[in-house]
UniProtKB/TrEMBL annotation, chain A:
Lineage: Eukaryota, Metazoa, Chordata, Craniata, Vertebrata
Function summary: Involved in several stages of intracellular trafficking.
One Pfam match: PX
Species annotation: Astyanax mexicanus
Protein name: Sorting nexin
A GO biological-process term: protein transport
UniProt domain PX: residue ranges: 70-217
Domain of life: Eukaryota
This protein's UniProt keywords: Protein transport, Transport
Record carries keyword Ubl conjugation: no
Region (Disordered): 26-62
From TrEMBL, chain B:
Gene Ontology BP terms: early endosome to Golgi transport; protein transport
Major localisation: other
Keyword tags: Acetylation, Cell projection, Endosome, Membrane, Phosphoprotein, Protein transport, Transport
SUPFAM superfamilies: BAR/IMD domain-like, PX domain
Function recorded in the entry: Involved in several stages of intracellular trafficking. Interacts with membranes containing phosphatidylinositol 3-phosphate (PtdIns(3P)) or phosphatidylinositol 3,5-bisphosphate (PtdIns(3,5)P2). Acts in part as component of the retromer membrane-deforming SNX-BAR subcomplex. The SNX-BAR retromer mediates retrograde transport of cargo proteins from endosomes to the trans-Golgi network (TGN) and is involved in endosome-to-plasma membrane transport for cargo protein recycling.
Family of the protein in this entry: Belongs to the sorting nexin family.
UniProt source species: Astyanax mexicanus
GO (cellular component) term, any one: cytosol
Domain PX span(s) in chain numbering: 103-232
Keyword Protein transport set for record: yes
Superkingdom: Eukaryota
Protein name: Sorting nexin-2
One Gene Ontology molecular-function label: phosphatidylinositol binding
Amino acid sequence: MFSSALLLLPPRSSFLQQRKIKGKVAAKIKTERRESPRSLTHRPTRSSAAMTSISQDADREKMRSVSVDLNNDSSLLIDIPDALCERDKVKFTVHTKTTLNSFQKPEFSVPRQHEDFIWLHDTLVETEEYAGLIIPPAPPKPDFEGPREKMHKLGEGESTMTKEEYAKMKQELEAEYLAVFKKTVQVHEIFLQRLSSHPVFSKDRNFQIFLEYDQDLSVRRKNAKEFFGGFFKNMVKSADEVLISGIKDVDEFFEQEKTFLLDYFSKIKDATAKAEKMTRSHKNVADDYIHISATVSNIGAEDNTALKTHLEKFSELLEKLRKVEGRVASDQELKLTELLRYYMRDIQAAKDLLYRRARALADYENSNKALDKARLKSKDIPQAEENQRQCLQKFDKLSESGKQELTSFKGRRVVAFRKNLIEMAELEIKHAKNSTALLQGCIEMLKVN
Amino acid sequence: DILKKRDSSYCSLDVDTLNSQTVEVIAIAKSVKCRGSILVTHLAHISTVELTLTTPNSRGRKEIIGPTGPLSTTMSTQNSLHMHNSLNKPLEELEEEESGDTFELNIAVTNPEKMGDGMNAYMTYKVSTQTTLPAFHIKTFSVRRRFSDFLGLYEKLSVKHHLMGCIIPPPPQKSVVGMTKVKVGKEDPSSAEFVEKRRAALERYLQRVVAHPALLQDSDVQEFLEREELPRAVNTQALSGSGFLKMINKASDAVNKMTIKMNESDNWFESKLQEVENEEQLLRRLHASVDSLVNHRKEMCINTAMFAKSVAMLGSSEENSALSRALSQLAEVEDKLEQLHQEQAFSDFFILTELLADYVRLLGAVRGCFEQRMKAWQRWQEAQATLQKKREAEAKLLWANKPDKLQQAKEDLTEWEAKVGQCERDFERISSTLRKEVHRFEKEKCRDFKHHIVKYLESLLRSQHRVVKCWEAFLPEAKAIV
């Protein structure tokens, strides 16, 4: 858990200071982390027993105790207890506890940066053996642009507000900053935990290096050639998309999957974008309450009539309400928007699997053609035969593991959606009831006056 | 002779002890049911009628003071002192004397209708009055009025009452853009919103006018409510000759304000003006914040609607049937929420924003009254200065011993002495009226704000209740996913 989270805010303007967030905030993060389950995924089925126990748990009232915990296997436990934010860089402390012999020590920690995670992901993608597996999507880059911009705007508008108003807005923004920070830590952690709980990935050599190597991995920045190479790869990918969407697959299962995934991906991408917008405007409404509350409080301070108490109570109520509204917005963000975002990326990973299979199929077909040509020319027949056999083997392996992966992916997805939707609904109800109670109390008090 | 009648619905006071310049002062005591019954208290030698209103469910007491007509010139300073004393009489004493009669006057502005075509088109509104006041011939009646009629009413009232220090509610503002859209005939929601906004504003305007006892008695107001056809008020057009005249007057007023340095004998006015100015500032700021809230909520509506559509699409392509059903339920929930947000934005606007806008304008009107008082003071000072000059001229003539011119000078002197006296009385009168007016205004504002705050909170409460219901309906669907 977080022993200490050192948060250094980038000194964009004079009013930002370096702060150490310890104690209270750290404790808060600690408890929150214990409560918040790995809400977005759960382990790919290691055993059906895990699945059934989860579905039983799901019927229980207290959803929070259903930890669809990725860290179930005590042979390899990974977490990110600590993280540091320096200017644009976030340094994660990856902590591993293991009973496996393949590691040198039973417990160790290493500092890692975001680029290291990307490196790990890319190497896994490029590994031939894993072509038939869904590779967990890479965590997105930490993006503090939103709160940072808001901070900047706040600094500019400082003169137009009162001290209290300004302090409250700043507090709110710092909370936002912290939320983005926590989210990025969680996303990176989940990436590693999915790898560690997968029977194949957990044994990957690069993964072990990532966890263990105590020197700086000094992942080279992609030089120009590699950058363009990456760009080219993306072009190829979109060509792939055209490729597989055009050709009808012989295998019924894969054909269905392909249609479904392509369609679903575009829909979920759209839904994610709209959810983001919705959550953001919700946050704006909550922020407006701050300004209104502050101004009403000012008016109340100046007022000497019977209106004074009314204004004061109104201002207090608004302050409380906006906190609730803020929570509604952030809970919506976590449960709904994050869910959609994560599964959008996961479905992309599943699509990538399909592309690889399609390419393997294309390779197989090419090898067939080559074999035919070789037979015609009566040259290099054994090589061509060998080639063809290998291609076929590869393709079959891909198909088999692909089928497995995609099936478990389905189940995983449904469970995660269920969990998050239930939690979101419950939270919304809780917050709305809270607001109702606050409002009722205030109205009664005002009517008596 | 002073006729007094307690507990009566009609009372008139004649101050008849004066010379040719006596003016009849008629104070008509009619109660306005908006707040309750009226108390008529008679005060000897004084043509002030103090009216106290109590609410039927004793929600608060208000004191309303009617206007005073132009006072007689021979009113002695003793009388005016007396008047001041009675005004300082504690309000509680007056509030104890209550009358039982209540009279009703309810006003509604409804049914906006477009008349005419193209750029000459205009909207008319139905102004319905329901009253038990004897001054009106029938109990329930309605007329159709257009926006310029309302503005015309304001002009007339300003001219008459402003000099007496009354706070006259300002009408809603002209909007060339809004009206042009309506004229052009676009049937889109924004022009409907504009018409609704204007209708509500006109209603509030009229309700405030009749809530003021002096204005209620005004014949122009009564004519406005009753008469079938009103002569078209032409001097209210923005680009007319009188429009320009007004602008020039406003400019010269502003310059004047900067140059008048008043010798304030009564601190109350100075501190009150400062209070009013501060409050206006704060209300402006609050108005801007609430406006921003309304806009953000509207934005949230749009985004929620888009999201709902998106989720519905997602649900339809979902292969797991239970999840698909849940997702389409989610889309429905979000749709309902969007409607809720829409209604809430509506409430935000009509309950809070418009209230604040009205009061910013009202405070402006209050400031205007203070300015009128300053002008009255200025006139008094000028009259005194002229009088001084005349005295000097007379003295000179006396010394130079020119009997024929002396007569003229003496007459001049008498005239100017009278003028000075008049100005002084005007000033005193406007000061006292202003004081009472401010007092009444504050009480009304207090009540208004209290009422609206509670109303707003109730609207928030209602929407939160519905949010709870929406999500509670969704929860079993989410749990049903397998």
